[in-house]
Model the fold of this input.
Amino acid sequence: MSDFVVKVGGEGGTDSPTTAGEFMAQAAIREGNAIFTMRSFPAEIRGGLATYSTRLCDHDVLSQGDRPDVLFCMNQEAYDKLVGELAPGGVLVFDTDSVTLDAGAHADLTLYGVPMQSLAQGHVGEKRTKNMVLLGVFSALFGMPLDTLKQCVRDKYGKRGEELVAVNHRALEVGSEFVAESLTKTDPFAFEPHPEAARRQMIIDGSQAIGMGALAAKVEFFAGYPITPATDVMQFLAEHLPQLGGQVIQVEDEIASLGACLGASYTGAKSMTATSGPGLSLMVELLGLATMVELPVVIVDVQRGGPSTGLPTKTENGDLNLAALGAHGDAPRVVVAPANVQDCFYDTVGAFNLSEAYQTPVILLSDQSMAMRAQAMAVPDMDAVELRERRIVDGEPGPGYRRYELTSDGVSAVALPGTGTRAYHMITGLNHDELGYPSTNDGPLSMAMMNKRQRKLDAVRGEPGWSRLHGPDEARIGVISWGTCEGAVAEAVDRLNAEHPEAARALHLRLVWPLPVEEIMAFAATVKRVVVVELNFSGQLNQLIRAETLLPTELVRKFDGTVFTPGEIADQLRDLMPEPVVPPAVPSSTLRRRPTLASTLAK
Amino acid sequence: MSDFVVKVGGEGGTDSPTTAGEFMAQAAIREGNAIFTMRSFPAEIRGGLATYSTRLCDHDVLSQGDRPDVLFCMNQEAYDKLVGELAPGGVLVFDTDSVTLDAGAHADLTLYGVPMQSLAQGHVGEKRTKNMVLLGVFSALFGMPLDTLKQCVRDKYGKRGEELVAVNHRALEVGSEFVAESLTKTDPFAFEPHPEAARRQMIIDGSQAIGMGALAAKVEFFAGYPITPATDVMQFLAEHLPQLGGQVIQVEDEIASLGACLGASYTGAKSMTATSGPGLSLMVELLGLATMVELPVVIVDVQRGGPSTGLPTKTENGDLNLAALGAHGDAPRVVVAPANVQDCFYDTVGAFNLSEAYQTPVILLSDQSMAMRAQAMAVPDMDAVELRERRIVDGEPGPGYRRYELTSDGVSAVALPGTGTRAYHMITGLNHDELGYPSTNDGPLSMAMMNKRQRKLDAVRGEPGWSRLHGPDEARIGVISWGTCEGAVAEAVDRLNAEHPEAARALHLRLVWPLPVEEIMAFAATVKRVVVVELNFSGQLNQLIRAETLLPTELVRKFDGTVFTPGEIADQLRDLMPEPVVPPAVPSSTLRRRPTLASTLAK
Amino acid sequence: MAPINETPDAAVPALTAAPTATVARPQPGTRRRPVRPAALPEVLPLVTPEPQPTVEPSYTAKDYRSDKEPIWCPGCGDFGVLAAVTEVFAQRHMDPDNTVLVSGIGCSSRFPTFLKGFGFHSVHGRALPVATGVAMANPRLDVVVVGGDGDGLSIGGGHFTHACRRNPNMTYLMLDNEIYGLTKGQVSPTTTDLSLAKKALTTPFGTWEWPLDPVSLALAYQATFVARAYSARKQEMVDIIDRAIAHDGFSFVQVISPCASFYNSFRAKAPQVKALDESHDTRDRAAATALAGDHAAVWLGVFYQDTQPTLRERFHDLGELAQKGREHVLGEVFAKYM
Amino acid sequence: MAPINETPDAAVPALTAAPTATVARPQPGTRRRPVRPAALPEVLPLVTPEPQPTVEPSYTAKDYRSDKEPIWCPGCGDFGVLAAVTEVFAQRHMDPDNTVLVSGIGCSSRFPTFLKGFGFHSVHGRALPVATGVAMANPRLDVVVVGGDGDGLSIGGGHFTHACRRNPNMTYLMLDNEIYGLTKGQVSPTTTDLSLAKKALTTPFGTWEWPLDPVSLALAYQATFVARAYSARKQEMVDIIDRAIAHDGFSFVQVISPCASFYNSFRAKAPQVKALDESHDTRDRAAATALAGDHAAVWLGVFYQDTQPTLRERFHDLGELAQKGREHVLGEVFAKYM
Ligand SMILES: Cc1ncc(C[n+]2csc(CCOP(=O)(O)OP(=O)(O)O)c2C)c(N)n1
Ligand SMILES: Cc1ncc(C[n+]2csc(CCOP(=O)(O)OP(=O)(O)O)c2C)c(N)n1
Ligand code: SF4
Ligand code: SF4
Ligand SMILES: [Mg+2]
Ligand SMILES: [Mg+2]
Done:
């Protein structure tokens, strides 16, 4: 079994460490391994330190891992800033042309010096191939087949001419040959190719997956305004949606984005926008309108570090309060949160389904880490993807048409303009009667309408398939998480269970609002202590859970702009582990269990 | 002891029932009574049914009471819509010229028919004096001294000429004489004048009180955008602030309002804006900025019925979620909520004090009912009003000046531009270092800054004087409330205690965020069951309390756009009353008690 | 917007329109984009064509009214606009099933309530973005936006700019009463009279802010149809609104519509308003701009009109461009990322 | 804004300014307000006058730089603007203690970071409202707003309008690169070149939206000082910015400042830019408007300048009006409600 993390660091503009990392990841996939990548950018617009880290694993991988085992430093800044991250016993590969090591340090590391710069310049004749030389070194040192890397290069650059391919191939060879001639491998890390296990997979990041999910859900209209790290979603759709007959427009601000989506949705079009925290803040008034007029719309929020402009290139799961409760008055809406790139695809489809079926805005909370992270994903089987549609009036319902009929499930059929229904009516953000007309002096009616809107949400609470369990059926500690933490939580739980049987289990929620209270209670009944793990300051999900369940939860949080490692979570859970004495108060078997998707995780 | 509610209803534009009600209230004050008024407006811009109700009470009054005891109907619509509200055994006075009674109904009521229209037209010669004729009738039927009413009329219209006064006096007499000649009093309601107890008091509504509070706090800058029911605050300040040397500007939208306030605050000016729910929704992004750059600013939100455009002329306490938690990322801020007109004054001063002392945005939640309600209030003793100021850099601190110095209380001294400090620095919504400069790659620093901001809020939690207790020291049921409900809760508690000793007590919070957890726990320890009473759909305070305390609270709520009556609360509390068996689990004496303002209520 | 009893591509003679030429705006250097031919595309990008219902030709103006009575004050200028709009709808045989009225918040924004058709009464200042979404997603709809001067120039002023330059196919009627009516009288960006401003609620000592002229702004924003009408001159208003609806692209009409309750300017306006001279060339943006800023009179009529590609055509083009030689099914998108 | 080493009321000869006349805009009927005399009030309404510190006369341009190195890409046009601004500050002997730089979000909005003085880096599009608050609350401060074309015309477009018509005393430099730089290249409201637009991230098939011209807009919004400069022509830029800061009221300068990374238009602009003719009358708004819309060249220089009451004077007046014969102490306010 092989499982190690390789990180490459260098100057963003010139060294292109990201390209090296991407090829590494792609080759690993083709060799039947699993990957989990992370990127980081400098604060400068151009230049500065960029990093790319890839976990290479010949079995399924749940998280980015703990610390890098192998670090490639392409310049001094990378060495200075990153060498401290290396795991004990790790490997440092550095460019002897540009890195000066601290004298006497690193006794516990394996060091390989490579004159990357001179090899690229002198032997390949092209300074910019330094990252390819690095890849050649990687190939020879850790056993990544060079031909696979070469094929990746050909697939990417082939259409730009044989010369470009040749020079990059040459650089790969130069790197690889340097290792053969000048280095002796002394470290234990080895990549294990399993080409027989390789499946044809896409390598995509979270934003591309969201875009694909929207296409799969048959999105028809997208309006947006650029903002880091959400622009990629618009960029993806701008490239692909027009070809499938839909429209993408960049408008003047986020208020206009959501406004245009509501207008489009009013005509029956599936509509979506994507933004980050500051944009979501600006949308609050129109979000309330969406709930009030009961228009479907999907709002993607790729969360970044807050509050305010905060940490635009860092990650956080800190927009839950705003997404769930940010409204004047009570404006029930749905919030879902994928946990990985694959979820980004399927949960976007799910978001459209909930939105259209319940005629409600749905906010999908992704985050910077998911947006920046490439993962491998099997091509979706579109026949297995169910799409749900809006309840539409067909034919002419006659003059008494009630747009907001007080039905038992809260959902009323919609007459769309221009479809020959002659069901003339208006929609308004004012309190209204069943016909849709303003009514601001009828208390019982306003209450009935408020209850109608909430009724829809209560039904959403029972929608299946929006959570995953991990670990044994009963355990001393039960972890509840949301957002990008799932993989690290799952690995931490595995580690604890390896230490003590039945130490921990986990429930990961992807439908975060309305809260699936029954499911949480059932889970809580199987554990001695409930711990909520999340990536924000105040424990936003934790507070919602406590308010709705009164469970005496513990909170494990992080808010420095980076994701959790499995080790960090495991450490904190160990501290919170209750004594293994009393069995759970309520026998778990007496509580109703809902079907979960535990088994689908990272398959 | 006299205590009854008089309601006047008529056509807003022509009958002017509001003017009649206002004179009634003013005269009652001059006769040493207490009042509690309520107004309602039609949805139409002009015309439609308007009502004014006044509770007249020769002892202190806490709420608007339950149902009207006496109803004056000036037109058919008033009769049709309002007669059902009358308390059993009530009195109906109607204009025989315009109202046709339902045949055979009202056996339980006392009926007085008065040809108001013809008396005004025929005997006074001016149709528009119908409301004065009504006041004359009121005077004679219920014992309000006619001279006092006459004096009120003179004080209001005197400067517009003797003729106007005379015609109105004539109308008062005509009404009064009609009663003497044509009616026999058969009902039990009687106003009891106590001119000896009369104090010189202001009669003001909540918005005027907020404006006065701002003046008292020495506000220097106000920027706003009109919105019902908050415009009155801007209107009051536009009239008075320039005379005291400050500035009021109507800007292009609510985003600009808060933006301009932050700019003004940056120069050291005490700044304020006022809006209602939709405007607060638009301010969310800049609210986050205010927290991040640590600028003091007071945002008044006069809440109306939501969500979305909702019920603009109705009331609700439904913006608490947004005020406390509406932000991307965690942006701690302060939320206070006055309970009555007097609070509107003192809590506005308090809001400025907290804002300046802690360099934080403070949201003050008033509501439509408080804005529309006139109450009597003693002229504030300005010597007793303490003002707190921003911690300012004096002199030249030198080049290393740290705007965001990580102090133990979280508060850092500010260097203001143009004051000769030469402490050049910048402020930004990005994460920043102690000097104020952007820092987006230093996790520990971002965490330290987040903790700094929270530290300030934790200190606010302990600020004294922001709550009131009502009822005995221990009780079976403990009611926690916020916003406009206090009076009705207090009366309900009194009624329950009259039925069973130690049945109920109440804790009313005016600092609603950060939540005073210790105080709530201490209160909870003195009761068997905690009930939260509030005026919104989801129980927003209730959820916050449950999340922070895990108390198994019950919720009593209302969300039809109107305020609670004491009777409604008492009924619901009776249903929730626990059996009077076990004493409270924790002896209350072991818990620390904080000084409260219980005794100041309605003084 | 084509009347629904004709096929959408047939040429529709506008009832009262002056000859509208396809005017190429000057295009030197790289500063301006080439003008596209004005022909309408046969295929619309997004919505599956629905059978176009036809309306009874017998529909009169009042048949276009809903059964709701306007809640405006007696004497409000908006009544006149409502009458004119229904008359235009009747004479153009508009199909209510195909008509969408979009508004923000304000007295004038209550407009959709009183008309037969589909109405979206959104929030303050956001009518134009909402209407842009409507018009893009279903280009066959007749979209009319109605709102106030505050709604459109104060809180919504940022959207007005971009609606004009995008040229979506819709008509925007700005009912300008120079005041905030619904909130009971505060100055608006168009308030011109200092003495009246002093009576406004939040400016008891007056305001000195320079008033904006909506027509000048629409011209600066490159709108392709710009006009001004006056609520008290009905037939003229009918003609202007008719031409606005007939226009292919974004048509803007400032309708001076005084507020009877808080800023009654009927008396002040009457002597100032004058119909634009017949000789005014509506293809001359510079002349239009000069007339809009003219202080000698408040000119009424169509200031400017030209034919430019609409948002709908642009997106059609974009779709065609996109579809040339590229993936058309989802599977091909997936394949690109393998 | 007066240089701080003179008393605020002294007349300051602008270093390079053309003669600035007090131009009365036409005022017929009730449509326009009377022009007030241009004298500055002696008493300022709000802030207690602080002693005005003087700056070392030896301050050179680089002394106005903070110790932060700009994080802009090599070749970014904004470097030139930074150099020009510090030079203007030096030649005007501006006091950093009295200077407030306000910005929104964008590459250009990082400006305050690199200058010595007080800086408020607010949020995207909101620099002008924030700056208005600064300028109103302390009228003695020298307020300079710096931001991008997206910041000022897209998300912040609604505020630009009202800042111009209010005429607060501040200078607004819009660093126009016709692109969103910070978010790595999307079209902005000023993007003119269709082929470049196609390389922008969110418009892979191009955009047809009509570009806005910031100078034309400022003129339509009734700004009292409107100019255009070009980052690659330093001395001219220095002169223009100097005159802008010297202007009493709202001064707007569009600075063409190309983005080296995502829309490098230095090459395209070079042959187009031309200095305005000496003969251009800066008191003629109509001529300025025509030149701004001219397609023959991208004119550089001061298009328009006139003297109008500033927001500060207006509020001073308002305060005086308010204080005449009315309550001046809180007690009198209370008394009014008894
Ligand atoms: C976000 C928000 N801010 C403020 C308001 C209050 N408001 C409603 S209508 C209006 C202005 C009305 O003026 P205008 O748009 O000119 O329309 P009119 O009533 O004059 O027709 C305002 C400020 C609101 N509804 N929403
Ligand atoms: C509310 C909000 N929306 C979007 C963004 C993302 N954003 C930051 S800067 C910017 C535009 C930058 O363009 P411009 O204003 O022209 O400045 P430049 O970088 O070109 O100097 C955008 C869209 C944001 N920070 N906040
Ligand atoms: S307030 Fe003015 S604009 Fe509104 S309905 Fe009344 S008259 Fe018309
Ligand atoms: S991206 Fe463009 S505007 Fe931004 S710093 Fe780089 S060159 Fe300048
Ligand atoms: Mg108006
Ligand atoms: Mg730009």
Residues 203-384 of chain A form a domain with the Rossmann fold fold (CATH 3.40.50.970). DSSP finds 19 helices and 21 strands in chain A. Residues 581-603 of chain A have pLDDT under 50 and may be disordered.
